[in-house]
Write a structure and sequence with these properties.
The structure is a homodimer. Chain A has about 450 residues and is of the alpha/beta class. Chain A has 14 helices and twelve strands. In chain A, a hairpin with a 2-residue loop joins strand 11 and strand 12. Chain A is globular, with a radius of gyration of 24 Å. In chain A, about 55% of the residues are buried. At the A-B interface, helix 2, helix 3, helix 4, helix 5 and helix 6 of A face helix 2, helix 3, helix 4, helix 5 and helix 6 of B.
């Protein structure tokens, strides 16, 4: 069998008998060959891109250590590194002396679910033993532009998606505080108990930052837990130039912040930060005596596993910690600032360029730049409905061609009544001005005949 | 600063300025130096031990690929490998043609929580939108020896820990089916709706296998979802000699099976297998249009992300798939059989040895061997209460000394009215008969003066 045929059959069924080492290497090479090159500076498809060499080395060391975060006993160094890093992140949020709590969880959706779980427990601690039947009907609030994990969490936690009330966003994707207050009052009138507001710092599509100060005033007024989903935008706290976009975050009860997005830490690395100490432990602990023995010979407060929903928990901390050591806070700041600069460059290049239309006005708030590309054929169509129909099909075709040529990758989607548009995001510090120029030319090259 | 002083301060606060590359290497060396050597053949402390070289290489490749399981578009190879591997696992469970569904999740606790979520949705699909207020009070059933994640799951899902009814286990830790039926009837009489039974295949402490056939008969009779938590014991399905212990597993609605435990796949690698196709998707999907676009240029059934609770999902499949290729099914079988043989060897050596008492009679069912070591000083104590009080303190002291000497590590815990005892488990195929001999001698050396 020659190499190519072998490559094509590497996906064969799993066998009883072992393969040869040669076959294993062929499988590895084929896996890398057909993998998407997420580290490539022209891969703009997701919020997590790039490949930091120190982060990669740290992940390799983590794999080699092959241990578990549940007890200090089996992960003494990693537990301590998690402690110092979470504390540092809380300081950056602005909680005094970095006090509070937190955990690294398997992704932003789970971090957000943790926040909702804590909010419910804080208001109704009996829910842990008695379940939702002991609790009035709850209502959670989040912007119509927020991440779908808020609804997923509500479904899983037995709250129900209908109890997640979507608040209107303005043209640029920011939650409208007046609508939040109106909907809270409305829910109360209907007998619901508002318990959770999830503000978004950096929405997935527009990159919008909800007005946190105004939202926190409303949360305080109605005694509702304020969560900030900063999975995408939280990292801007590292930048002196951009952190004002999260002003008010220090008033939140909990914050999701994913270093695996804008800080280019290898996947996965997501933190939930919580202002109140001890709440996570009370909410989730089950005192399994075969894991959290009370007569160990060390300080049991280092056994942080019982505050997690998980039992075993993957070590996600080392790559973030080591990258932080290697870059310093100023290194992260520089790479974040650079990505935002690239976005602004893209925005400036296309906002008045023929064939482009911006999805909303104004400079990018995060690195998201949302736009339509209009091929010459539909640029001057007079029938607006016809034009819209055609335009809807443009981005999927260009994207498919990008993938076939293997030159670049960028995401698209519809939103509300807006037909398919491109959403550019930049989180890879390896990207350059030339890559942005290339993207524009490539879209035009691949789309001009449509 | 000399090397030692530097090592001791490597845990310093995170700084604004970057550290030198030398400092980074010192941090890496220190992290490995103070790490617990989980791959050492005398590390018996957890259910996940060892370090498979092919698995490690696969994890390194996974880190390098740095992608996300949510869409085929960004993880084409890994999505396909997950598909073929889950199918193979379902075939091994015994579901016809490997039909069904499944997912790799961040650990057994989350896999068990998925199962409970699916069981609830299957019986009351309206819970997704309307929450638990649309549902009668539910009751879940599991053995008193089961894993604490069943209660954690119930707390999180808004079912409440009081709705988890603990069924009596016999002396060897197996759930007693008659007690299960009695408690189901009792719950029904009290107006609860039984919706979920979690049988355990390989309990955490005793390694007991619940009688699945008898349990499945009861589940069928009362129309209750049958879950098998085989996080620890599921891998015995790979062994022709031991798979009878899971007879009846093919009747389950869902099965948790963690290859990161008895198959020595690097952490994390946990699968939930589900008999009914499509249920996970219906239960969890939220149709986020910015991720799961409906006008992509490939078969959308490969976009498996919307059936997960998570949005981004770590690639856990490649290490299992590559190890399977490298060993074949018979390779896994051989290493599992060997670990069970080592356990039986340990059991035979200590069951009649002076100074040892077994916690329960009979040969080990899994690799768990539970025993007390009685130092000479308390071996002949007549006052039973006094003896118990002393004995309770023995295991913690011996364990602390093991860790101080750095020679071996084994877990201990109390259970019910039984004072602290050792729980040996063997999941590292690198362990040998000599390591078992060493353990016995080491316990005696470290404990003889107590």
């Amino acid at each position: 069998m020659d190499g190519d045929t072998k490559t094509m059959t590497f996906l064969q069924e799993l066998q009883d008998e072992p393969a040869t080492l040669d076959d294993i290497l062929i499988s590895c090479r084929a896996t890398l060959k057909y993998a998407i090159k997420t580290a490539h500076p022209r891969y703009f498809n997701q919020l997590s891109t790039g490949l930091d060499m120190v982060g990669l080395a740290a992940d390799w060391l983590t794999s080699t250590a092959n241990t578990n975060m549940f007890t200090y006993e089996v992960a003494p160094v990693f537990v301590l590194l998690e402690y110092v890093t979470l504390k540092k992140m809380r300081e950056i949020i602005g909680w005094s002396d970095g006090r509070g709590d937190g955990i690294f969880s398997p992704g932003g959706a789970i971090s957000n679910m943790y926040a909702m779980l804590l909010a419910r427990f804080k208001m109704f601690p009996e829910v842990k033993e008695k379940g939702m039947s002991s609790v009035p009907r709850l209502a959670a609030f989040t912007s119509e532009h927020s991440h779908f994990s808020i609804k997923k969490g509500a479904a899983a936690l037995g709250i129900g998606t209908e109890s997640v009330i979507c608040i209107k966003a303005d043209e640029s994707g920011k939650l409208i505080p007046a609508d939040l207050e109106r909907r809270i009052l409305e829910a109360k009138q209907k007998g619901f108990v508002p318990f959770f507001v999830s503000a978004t710092a950096g929405t997935t599509v527009y990159g919008a930052f909800d007005p946190l100060i105004a939202i926190s005033d409303i949360c305080k007024k109605y005694n509702v837990w304020m969560h900030v989903d900063g999975a995408w935008g939280g990292s801007l706290l590292m930048s002196r130039r951009h952190r004002w976009k999260l002003d008010g975050v220090e008033r939140a009860n909990s914050v999701t912040w994913n270093p695996h997005k804008m800080m280019s830490v290898p996947l996965q690395c997501s933190a939930l930060l919580v202002r109140e100490e001890g709440l996570m432990q009370n909410c989730n602990q089950m005192h399994a005596c075969y894991l959290f023995q009370q007569d160990k010979h060390y300080d049991l407060s280092y056994d942080t596993g019982d505050k997690a929903l998980q039992c075993g928990r993957h070590v996600d901390i080392f790559k973030l910690w080591l990258m932080w050591r290697a870059k310093g806070t100023i290194g992260f700041e520089a790479q974040i600032d650079k990505c935002l600069e690239l976005s602004e460059y893209l925005y400036n290049k296309i906002k008045d360029r023929e064939g482009y239309e911006m999805v909303f006005d104004g400079k990018p708030q995060h690195t998201n730049v949302c736009f339509w590309y209009l091929p010459p054929g539909i640029r001057y169509m007079e029938d607006k409905e016809e034009r819209k129909k055609h335009l809807h099909k443009v981005a999927p075709v260009i994207k498919a061609r990008m993938m076939e040529y293997g030159t670049t990758m960028v995401s698209y989607q519809p939103q509300g009544d807006k037909v398919n548009f491109f959403r550019m995001v930049i989180s890879n510090p390896a990207a350059t001005f030339e890559d942005i120029d290339f993207l524009i030319e490539e879209i035009e090259r691949l789309g001009q005949d449509l």
